[in-house]
């Protein structure tokens, strides 16, 4: 048993950064399991802001405090962005509150910003922290899955299905801009699931002219409805693309009336799907186990169906390395020599994570492409 393990009698739990469906199921899993292990649980409201403010923002949780939340969207602990927590003074205040309240360790549910904050709290002031990735974007390289993705992509799919109905009736095209931050997962999954004519993501170039040409060929072959899915991070203006599709098709005497829709925060809400509730349960329990076993600076990841803990700094470097392959802003700041601090085995693990993500995007894109053709053989 490590030094931390012997010390943990009371843990705090908070949600921070962008919310996602499944966060409540994770809060419940952590609370119920920790209580079962004889560990006290403190619910911290409004993320790191609550940890800094203390007092009314922190409440002792019993089993009943997490009753009837497993199926609720949002987070009962609320979320907030807290710039103060990026400064040493703010982190120090948070650590002081933890000490005064007897909080020996923290479970933080959020994205990479949340984990970096947890890392600072742990390394500067010795409060062990374990993270659970909660973001609809599925944009954390080290994990195959982030909590909330399945619910958000199902909602996106259902909304596009509805557009498709009306597109078919009126022989229209809809360009649907979907969420995902700089990651194309929501766009790719929803495009495949709705049979979109084309999909544009940040990770790969998008040939607008080729997509329009393909749509015109499909129209000639009898196709009435067209859905084009654009990820919010893609390097193009989706609204302008809609205008271009209509203008170009009109100039070829086969005008496809095209409209634009943006599904923003509406997909961040809603009751979590089975997939998200299962992930919340597994990650919640594993996070408590990891904290109690004396670990810190890690967050729960899903890899090939297994739940494993990953070091926050390893994950952070893997993230930058992967994102530098397609995002010029990340590439500009990326310093490959930072990876030298890791041993050979860890470096190989990072490289394989990056290679897996690249291959995954290509595979999904190819799948979307392969089922978007409209051809018949006489
Ligand atoms: P997400 O966790 O979804 O990525 P943010 O990036 O907004 O969301 O991070 C959530 C919160 O985590 C921030 O408001 C801040 O309090 C804390 N945080 C983010 N980045 C850092 C950092 N580099 N150092 C310390 N705390 C951070």
Report on this model:
- The protein is α/β, with parallel strands linked by helices.
- It folds into two domains: 3-148 and 272-312, Rossmann fold, CATH 3.40.50.450; 150-268 and 362-370, 3-Layer(aba) Sandwich (Rossmann fold).
- The chain is 47% helix and 15% strand.
- It has 13 helices and eleven strands.
- The strands form two sheets. It has a seven-stranded mixed β-sheet, with helices on both faces. The protein has a four-stranded parallel β-sheet with strand order 7-8-6-9, sandwiched between helices.
- Strand 4, helix 5 (112-125) and strand 5 (129-133) form a beta-alpha-beta unit.
- The mean pLDDT is 96.
- Residues 16-18, 48, 81-82, 85-86, 110-114, 116-117, 120, 135 line the site of adenosine-5'-diphosphate.
Structure, briefly:
Helix content is 47%, strand content 15%.
Q: Given this structure, which CATH class of the largest domain is correct?
A: Alpha Beta
Low-confidence stretches: none
Number of helices: 13
H and E order: HEHEHEHEHEHEHEHEHEHEEHHH
Please summarize the sheet with the most strands.
7 strands, mixed
Strand proportion: 15-25%
Radius of gyration: 23 Å
Q: Helix fraction?
A: 40-55%
Strand order in the largest sheet: 3-2-1-4-5-10-11
Number of strands: 11
How many structurally independent domains? 2
CATH architecture of the largest domain: 3-Layer(aba) Sandwich
> Which ions, cofactors or small ligands are bound in this entry?
adenosine-5'-diphosphate
pLDDT average, as an integer? 96
Query: Structural class of the secondary elements?
Result: alpha/beta
Cα-to-Cα separation, first versus last residue: 71 Å
Shape: elongated
Briefly note the CATH topology name of the largest domain. Answer: Rossmann fold
């Amino acid at each position: 048993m490590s030094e931390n393990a012997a010390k943990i009698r009371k843990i705090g739990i908070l949600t921070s950064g962008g919310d996602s469906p499944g966060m409540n199921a994770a809060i419940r899993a952590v609370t119920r399991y920790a209580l079962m292990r004889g560990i006290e649980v403190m619910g911290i409201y409004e993320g790191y802001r609550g940890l800094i403010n203390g007092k009314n923002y922190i409440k002792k949780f019993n089993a009943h405090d997490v009753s009837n939340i497993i199926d609720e969207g949002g987070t009962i602990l609320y979320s907030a962005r807290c710039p103060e927590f990026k400064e040493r003074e703010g982190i120090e205040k948070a650590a002081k509150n933890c000490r005064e309240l007897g909080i020996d360790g923290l479970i933080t549910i959020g994205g990479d910003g949340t984990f970096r904050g947890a890392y600072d709290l742990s390394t500067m002031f010795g409060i062990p922290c374990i993270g659970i990735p909660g973001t609809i974007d599925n944009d954390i390289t080290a994990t195959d899955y982030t909590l909330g993705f399945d619910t958000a992509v199902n909602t996106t799919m259902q909304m596009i299905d509805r557009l498709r109905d009306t597109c078919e009736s009126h022989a229209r095209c809809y360009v649907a801009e979907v969420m995902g931050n700089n990651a194309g997962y929501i766009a790719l999954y929803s495009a495949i699931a709705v049979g979109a004519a084309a999909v544009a993501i940040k990770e790969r170039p998008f040939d607008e002219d080729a997509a329009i040409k393909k749509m015109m060929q499909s129209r000639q072959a009898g196709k009435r409805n067209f859905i084009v899915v654009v990820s919010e991070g893609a390097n193009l203006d989706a609204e302008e693309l809609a205008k271009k599709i209509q203008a170009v098709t009109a100039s070829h005497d086969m005008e496809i009336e095209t409209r634009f829709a943006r599904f923003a925060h509406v997909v961040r809400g809603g009751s979590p799907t089975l997939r998200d509730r299962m992930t919340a349960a597994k990650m919640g329990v594993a996070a408590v186990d990891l904290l109690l076993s004396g670990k810190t600076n890690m967050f729960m990841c899903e890899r090939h169906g297994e739940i494993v803990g990953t070091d926050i700094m390893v994950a952070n470097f893997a993230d930058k390395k992967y994102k530098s392959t397609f995002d010029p802003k990340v590439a500009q700041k990326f310093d490959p020599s930072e990876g030298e601090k890791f041993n050979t085995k860890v470096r190989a693990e990072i490289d394989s994570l990056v290679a897996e993500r690249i291959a995954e995007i290509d595979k999904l894109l190819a799948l979307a492409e392969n089922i978007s053709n409209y051809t018949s053989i006489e």
